[in-house]
TrEMBL record:
CDD domains recorded: ABCG_EPDR
Name the UniProt record assigns to this protein: Protein white
Annotated InterPro entries: AAA+_ATPase (IPR003593), ABC2_TM (IPR013525), ABC_transporter-like_ATP-bd (IPR003439), ABC_transporter-like_CS (IPR017871), ABCG_dom (IPR043926), ABCG_transporters (IPR050352), P-loop_NTPase (IPR027417), Pigment_permease/Abcg (IPR005284)
Protein's organism: Photinus pyralis (Common eastern firefly)
GO molecular function annotation: ABC-type transporter activity; ATP binding; ATP hydrolysis activity; pigment binding
Transmembrane segments: 341-358, 370-392, 413-439, 445-469, 476-498, 560-584
SUPFAM superfamilies documented for this protein: P-loop containing nucleoside triphosphate hydrolases (SSF52540)
A matching Pfam family: ABC_tran
Phylogenetic placement of the source organism: Eukaryota, Metazoa, Ecdysozoa, Arthropoda, Hexapoda
Superkingdom field: Eukaryota
Keywords assigned by UniProt, alphabetized: ATP-binding, Membrane, Nucleotide-binding, Pigment, Transmembrane, Transmembrane helix, Transport
Membrane topology: Multi-pass membrane protein
Length: 590
């Protein structure tokens, strides 16, 4: 059955799409063409239910003649967006396996899913690179741009959708790659699918490959028909395309709004759009769209499908698939693994060498306290900044996949936490194993284990803070810009630079949000509790025992448990706020 769009009226500050009629038929490749700002992507986003929340859209979306919700629409169609977003450390096959696990119907057995993955790999010519890493631009070499675009198509057609939209599929590709991509779309259309794509200015070879073209200008339809009919239509208007000239280039020049000539250009655009609406082509199109609407639309009906959510996989299936991918992303991510381990080793060794062999003397007390605070700062900065870098890079992938109805927000956040937890436990343990006895901290094994546990809590609280900053920010640049200024008061009121009792009352609330403060309290008490004698130089004032050291910082020997519980509480608080912020981001996309 033909898919129709009729009388679309959307606006954002100004009217940008008005009374658009169009028909896209199964088996045909329809290209929506127009200059920048013509409304191509806006139209596509409205049709797929992905328009900006600031965009006011009136009307309704129907399938099989009845009204449908955005959730149902998401589960019915495929939408290949202009920007290719992937977890770049995965291979092509791993990416498609994940897509099959969360996109395909939950009643389809695992074996059939894997067979479908292999079928799609072969169909789209990805067999030679199926075990190749996708790659990360500027950091890790991977597959080519054309292969990335075909991989985007492969993920979308796993579920064999009957309707497919593509936004600027040839953007950024050379002519050869662009030809291959359009050929893939052509082959998909020949399988009986309805394929609609936007394209800015195709070459003459690409232009001839489209079954139908829809010319847009100023949010209106200037023409809809075959490429040959478009040329005949312009010729009938007295503006024939010159010989040996790319018709697509000619149409773009004809419909472009040239700076300083806006009024004249708009007159040409309106003349052509009005001429099309009153032509045989336009009246036939309006009649066909109206006939389909009258035949199938029944007011009051709702879509008879049973799906009320866009998710095709159960919660448990989503969880297992996302956890598997998140773990792969962790172990294959050089920034998160190799560099983090090297960074931890280098800093731990440097601290161990600088503070090597401290004893319980006046100077030793000062050095031990400084070493403890330095370890806390190391655990904090070492975790906040890398987490922001990695999380912010993955965030656009999550937002798109969530919008596509692949998995829930809580599934992603929980899996992200669990997949990275082993790393954020191992690195603090590695640090304390290198530094603890080398520096000369409290020699009892029980104190070593407590210190290790506190450092693990400090690291994970810092990670939670990194998640929070990432989720509150709109970009990685903004997150990194926020992290530094926010860390300064947390560090300042950590108990080392300023006695906790000396903090002004109007700033004291900040110290309650400082995991550095609670970590410092816990490690200091763990170090000095039970130390009965400190060697002091004669005639020099210095703390005589561990209790006096703690009194200097306004700490009591009962603070270890409180500090650990406070660190655990801050970890949960930061992650809860981060999750709610992430949830809010997803709601703004609805």
């Amino acid at each position: 059955m033909p898919r129709c769009g009729k009388d679309l009226d959307s606006c954002e500050n100004s009217e940008c799409s008005e009374k658009l009629n169009g028909i896209a038929r199964p088996g045909e490749l329809l290209a929506i063409m127009g200059s920048s700002g013509a409304g191509k992507t806006t139209l596509l986003n409205v049709l797929t239910g992905r328009s900006s929340p600031r965009l006011v859209v009136s009307g309704m979306q129907c399938a099989n003649g009845v009204r449908i919700t955005s959730n149902v629409l998401t589960s019915m169609l495929a939408y290949v967006q202009q920007e290719d977003l992937f977890i770049g450390t995965l291979t092509v096959k791993e990416h498609l396996i994940f897509q099959a696990l969360v996109r395909m119907d939950k009643h389809i057995p695992y074996k059939r899913r894997m067979e479908r993955v292999q079928e799609v790999i072969v169909a789209l010519g990805l067999a030679k690179c199926e075990n190749t890493t996708i790659g990360i631009k500027g950091r890790r070499k991977g597959i080519s741009g054309g292969e990335m675009k075909r991989l985007s198509f492969a993920a979308e057609i796993l579920t064999n959708p009957s309707l497919m939209f593509c936004d600027e599929p040839t953007s950024g590709l050379d002519s050869f790659m662009a030809m291959n991509v359009v050929q893939v779309l052509k082959e998909l259309a020949q399988l009986g699918k309805t394929v609609v794509c936007t394209i800015h200015q195709p070459s003459s070879e690409l232009y001839e490959m489209f079954d139908k073209i829809l010319l847009m200008a100023e949010g209106r339809v200037a023409f809809l028909g075959t490429p040959r009919e478009a040329e005949n239509f312009c010729a009938a208007l007295g503006a024939p395309c010159p010989k040996n000239y790319n018709p697509a280039d000619y149409f773009m020049q004809l419909l472009a709004i040239v700076p300083n000539q806006e009024e004249d250009c708009k007159q040409v655009v309106n003349m052509m759009c009005d001429a099309f609406a009153g032509s045989g082509y336009g009246m036939k199109l309006a009649a066909e769209a109206g006939a389909v609407e009258k035949e199938v639309y029944k007011p009051g009906d709702s879509f008879n499908g049973k799906r009320r959510t866009p998710y095709k996989a159960s919660w448990c299936a989503q969880f297992s698939a996302v956890l598997w991918r998140s773990w792969l992303a962790v172990v294959k991510e050089p920034l998160l693994m190799k560099m983090r381990v090297i960074h931890t080793l280098v800093l731990a060794i440097v601290v161990a060498i600088v503070y090597f062999g401290q004893s319980l003397t006046e100077e030793g007390v000062m050095n031990i306290n400084g070493a403890i605070y330095l370890l806390i700062l190391n655990m904090s900065f070492q975790n906040v900044i890398p987490v922001i870098n990695v999380f912010c890079q993955e965030l656009p992938v999550f937002l798109r996949e969530h919008k596509n109805g692949m998995y829930r927000t809580d599934v992603y956040f929980l899996c992200k936490t669990l997949a990275e937890l082993p790393l954020f436990v191992a690195l603090p343990l590695l640090t304390v194993a290198i530094c603890y006895y080398t520096i000369g901290l409290n020699p009892y094994v029980s104190r070593f284990l407590i210190a290790a546990g506190i450092l693990v809590l400090i690291a994970n609280t810092a990670v939670s803070f990194g998640y929070l900053v990432s989720c509150l920010s709109s970009s990685i640049a903004m997150a990194l810009s926020l992290a530094g200024p926010l860390m300064i008061p947390i560090m300042l009121f950590g108990g080392f630079f300023m006695n906790l009792d000396s903090i002004p009352k109007y700033f004291r609330w900040i110290s309650y949000l400082s995991w550095i403060r609670y970590g410092f309290e816990g490690l200091m008490v763990n170090q000095w509790e039970g130390v009965n004698h400190i060697n002091c130089t004669e005639n020099m004032a210095c703390p005589q025992n561990g209790t006096m050291v703690l009194d200097t910082y306004s700490l009591s020997e009962s603070d270890v448990t409180t500090a650990c519980l406070s660190l655990l509480g801050l970890t949960c608080l930061f992650r809860l706020i981060a999750y709610l912020s992430l949830l809010l981001k997803t709601y703004t996309l609805e």
